Amino acid sequence: MTDARASQDMQPAPGYRARILLVDDDEHNLFAMEKVLEDLGDVVAARSGEEALKQLLRHDFAVILLDVLMPGIDGYDTARLIRSRERSRHVPIIFLTAVNKDDVHMLRGYAMGAVDYVYKPVEPLILRSKVSVFVDLFRKTQEVGRKAEQEQRLLEENFRVRTEKLLAEQALRASEQRQALIIQSLPIALYAGEVGRERGAPQFMSDNIHVLCGFTAQQFLQSRDLWSERIHPEDRERILQAFARMPETGGHAVEYRWRCADGEYRFFLDHAVVVRDEHGTPREIFGTLLDVTERKRLEQQLVQAQKMDAIGKLTGGIAHDFNNMLTVVIGSLDRLRRAPQSDPKVVKRIDLALEGAMRCSDLTRQLLAFARRQPLQPKPIDLNDLVAGVTDMVRRVLGDGIELVLDPGEKLWMAQTDPTQIESALLNLVVNARDAMPEGGRLTVMTRNLVLRESEAAQLGFATGEYVTLTVADTGVGIAPEFRDRVFEPFFTTKQPGQGTGLGLSIIYGFVKQSGGHIRLDSELGRGTTFSIYLPRAPETVMRERLAAAEEGRVLRAQDGEIVLAVEDDDAVRQIAADALAELGYKVIEASNGPAALELLAGAARIDLLFTDLAMPGGMNGHELAAKALMRRPGLKVLLTSAYTDRFAGGPAPRASLRFLNKPYRERELAAAVRDALDEVR
Ligand code: ADP
Ligand code: MG
């Protein structure tokens, strides 16, 4: 095999040549052999065994040609040393020898590691062919080694790449699982759909949509109208249009009501974006659905609270002026009534007018209660008495077409409640019932004692305990299920403008809750509606009418010429009060504001009572006036009055014990309050 062929077969690395080590002490031999071998490989010449060993430390050789006879270490010793070294152990050695052709000698050479012998004088052809065999072998071995190495490298590379791929896949799967987990556990559903697809029906829906709305992702994909059909009718057009406009808008965030699998509407926040292809053409819509019902509810509550606050301020203001005017009206009527005159017809008229004025006064109180500006005045009430008291009015309200059935409970307990409020609640329920029975029907008013035990109470969501119930049942049109919660909302009404305010039930609800009671609604469409008010049973000990009885026969006139300083900015109201007090025998000094009153107080020798309005213009309110007056005259008696029913509306009171009289008041009430203050009756 020639060198050229070998290199062709084995394709050694370009520039790569095998090394041949020539060891001979004879320069001529070296030179001659070098010439013969130089085209087979790089010939390295060494002139002694030591030099050869040195070269072997530096390079790898394909073959060593070793002269046997050399000064210093001879060929055999050199061979032994070569064999003893790890690096050169397997390098083939060819001995060069001129002598020692005998077998013993040759065997020694083989024993020392020779693979062949070449005899001197060297025959170039034989030398060449022997050396080329080893050079070839070396090359092939090298090549095989390199290939193996390459293969190993390839294998390793392959393995590395595969491991990396595996790890990447694992990481991807882990992250996919994580994402899926996140998507599933968030209260957000993801969806995707084609742009322009009819009614925005999704083509992908994340599984957790089920948690949001009770339908599975599968159901959404199968029934393409599911999503659009369940949008609240009032929202549908707006939402479908928003989706239709998406290619232009590029995305949107919209809120709408959606009817879930349980039939309830929930608020969804739908956030969607358009995804375009590389040409900028809108292709897909990606979006998220978030349940914002709770947030909406809070928002609505806030709006409601603000609305109530505004109404409260408004009604508070109106009630104030009303109460002042009513004080004048009632005071004047009281006086007229007492005037000596015989015509009983006139007296009757005056009584009617008084009754009307008192109703107005009740109404303002209710307005204030509705606006939560007034604490309730709960006391023990017999609901049967109360119902009996308004039966005539109820009949009038119902008219001819409706039958009234009264079903009073026996041995009814006292209910702890505000009588004015419960009366107006009853009338409100009756009016609602009448409106629900335009074709006529039957209205039942029922009262009962009721003990709510654990299980029942839990079922209703009420507290356990003893209640007195007032039930108003009609045989009217009923209330649709979706309205049953809403009827208690303020301003919720199904009536024509001008016929309903939507306030009735919300006022009742607020009052009942404030009383520590409950209200319950049962209704069936087309059959009728029943409202039940649960009022807490009153504590037994309180005696009814105790105060009223004590009042009777009491002398309410002035004693010993007592002097009252009356302070009031409204001239008409002050006039009425002063006249009434004078009528009762008091000496009255009048002032229209705080500073003027203080001046009078400083100048007067005797003043027994300061009777002052709370809210007055001019920088000093009734509380401040009372505080200053009490500093000057510690023993002074004080009676405060106000058209606001909240006695602390004008700021903190100097003494919580100061007496207070609501406007408007009857003459008798004024007389009693003044007497109480002067006598310090508790
Ligand atoms: P308004 O009577 O001014 O509408 P309410 O708060 O008293 O306000 O009542 C709210 C709504 O509740 C009514 O508009 C009506 O739709 C419904 N409603 C109340 N009571 C009844 C009833 N007895 N039967 C049927 N619907 C009723
Ligand atoms: Mg009503």
- Poorly predicted parts: 1-14, 541-547
Shape estimate:
elongated
Number of strands: 22
Radius of gyration: 56 Å
Sheet of most strands: 5 strands, parallel
Structure, explained:
With 682 residues, this protein is of the alpha/beta class. It has a five-stranded parallel beta sheet with strand order 2-1-3-4-5, sandwiched between helices. A five-stranded antiparallel beta sheet has the order 7-6-10-9-8, with helices on both faces. Helix 5 (103-111) links the parallel strand 4 and strand 5. The longest helix is centred in the N-terminal third of the chain and has 62 residues, at 124-185. The protein binds adenosine-5'-diphosphate and magnesium ion. Magnesium ion binds at residues 428, 431-432, 500, 504.
In short:
The chain is built from 22 helices and 22 strands.
Key traits:
single chain, 682 residues, alpha/beta, elongated, binds adenosine-5'-diphosphate, binds magnesium ion
Which helices and strands, and how do they pair?
Elements lengths: L2 H8 L8 E5 L3 H11 L4 E5 L2 H10 L4 E5 L7 H10 L8 E5 L5 H9 L2 E6 L4 H62 L2 E7 L9 E2 L3 H5 L3 H6 L3 H4 L3 H12 L1 H4 L1 E9 L5 E12 L5 E10 L1 H46 L5 H27 L8 E3 L1 H16 L3 E6 L7 E3 L1 H18 L4 E12 L1 H7 L4 E10 L29 H11 L3 E7 L3 E9 L9 H6 L11 E5 L3 H13 L3 E5 L2 H10 L5 E5 L8 H11 L4 E6 L16 E4 L4 H13 L3
Parallel strand pairs: 1-2, 1-3, 3-4, 4-5, 12-14, 18-19, 18-20, 20-21, 21-22
Antiparallel strand pairs: 6-7, 6-10, 8-9, 9-10, 11-13, 14-15, 15-17, 16-17
The structure holds adenosine-5'-diphosphate (ADP) and magnesium ion (MG).
Adenosine-5'-diphosphate binds next to helix 15 and helix 17.
